[in-house]
């Protein structure tokens, strides 16, 4: 079944408004489009903006009402809001109140399989890599896409701050998730069983986990209670599991660093390298991967989605990505 993200245009019609001015007014009320956190939009603090003198001049290329229906990954919500603000002139707080997304898998489906439909169908996505099963669906039934890497993130591993283990090798992590290493004492920790959380198969972080770390190797099946549906649920579970320090799980760096930081948790170094914007940018951290912008190939040069897609490769577009706290990459 098709899933759709909430669009500004759908919100506008729902209120019976007829102009972008009405949209902006509505988004500034005390009851915004998303009045509280949902599984796809957790509580978060926006990334800090750099000094204004270092910013590239923001020149709107669309009106607020022209901004295309956009879907994406949970970890890309702040970036989508910043893109909306920078390309339309909308203030960032208003843009943040107008953005929600589906899962990574459904964002790709919504663009490739349904994005050619008229009306409020997805026209642009900002997302992490699609799961292999979704790539197969799109190849068989979907419309062809233009996509490009616009930023880089990393798969990171999370433990309780009371866990004495500071770093694990990639092989140790593989052995933990294959069920070969089952006690923290075998990797320099306390004599406690290792409780290894995963995500569901169609999640963006699980896709990266299997691609970057497991690489087709052995992977134990995770019980339902150890494979939360939502990324925030995994972070909460690691922090709260039996009030002990024996759980481990993973996420993408931006999400855990900027969107859903949880007291009592910390990130592990992998192969001795701690994840940070700097180690992700120079790829010294070993588990890095790009995230993407995509539109349908049949999107014309003058369509709003194509204009935003092209804009992301300009100096202003890269500045937007970095201003949001992500690592930008060249095409």
TrEMBL record:
Protein name: Phosphate ABC transporter substrate-binding protein
Main location: membrane
Ranges where the PBP domain occurs: 133-298
Stated family: Belongs to the PstS family.
Signal peptide coordinates: 1-21
Gene Ontology CC: plasma membrane
Subunit structure: The complex is composed of two ATP-binding proteins (PstB), two transmembrane proteins (PstC and PstA) and a solute-binding protein (PstS).
Transmembrane segments: none
Species annotation: Faecalibacterium prausnitzii
Keyword Signal: yes
Biological function: Part of the ABC transporter complex PstSACB involved in phosphate import.
């Amino acid at each position: 079944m098709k899933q759709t993200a909430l669009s500004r245009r759908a919100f506008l019609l729902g209120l019976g408004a007829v102009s972008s001015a009405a949209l902006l007014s509505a988004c500034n009320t005390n009851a915004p489009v998303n009045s509280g956190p949902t599984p796809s939009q957790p509580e978060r603090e926006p990334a800090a903006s750099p000094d204004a003198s270092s910013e590239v001049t923001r020149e709107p290329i669309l009106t607020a009402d022209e901004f295309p229906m956009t879907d994406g990954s949970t970890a890309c919500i702040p970036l989508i809001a910043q893109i909306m603000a920078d390309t339309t002139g909308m203030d960032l707080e208003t843009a943040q109140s107008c953005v929600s997304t589906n899962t990574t898998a459904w964002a790709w489906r919504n663009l490739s399989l349904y994005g050619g439909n008229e009306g409020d169908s997805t026209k642009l996505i900002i997302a992490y890599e699609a799961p292999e099963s979704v790539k197969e669906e799109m190849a068989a039934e979907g419309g062809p896409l233009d996509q490009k890497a616009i930023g880089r993130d990393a798969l990171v591993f999370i433990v309780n701050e009371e866990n004495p283990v500071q770093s694990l090798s990639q092989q140790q992590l593989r052995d933990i998730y294959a069920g070969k290493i089952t006690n923290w004492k075998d990797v320099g920790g306390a004599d406690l069983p290792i409780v290894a959380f995963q995500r569901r198969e169609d999640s963006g972080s699980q896709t990266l986990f299997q691609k970057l770390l497991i690489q087709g190797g052995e992977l134990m099946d995770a019980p339902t209670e150890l494979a939360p549906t939502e990324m925030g649920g995994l972070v909460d579970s690691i922090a709260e599991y039996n009030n002990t320090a024996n759980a481990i799980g993973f996420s993408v760096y931006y999400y855990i660093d900027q969107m859903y930081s949880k007291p009592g948790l910390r990130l592990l170094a992998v192969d001795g390298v701690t994840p940070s914007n700097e180690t992700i940018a120079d790829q010294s951290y070993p588990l890095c991967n790009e995230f993407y912008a995509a539109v349908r190939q049949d999107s014309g040069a003058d369509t709003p989605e194509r204009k935003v897609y092209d804009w992301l490769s300009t100096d202003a577009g890269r500045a937007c990505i970095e201003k949001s706290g992500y690592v930008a990459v060249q095409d």
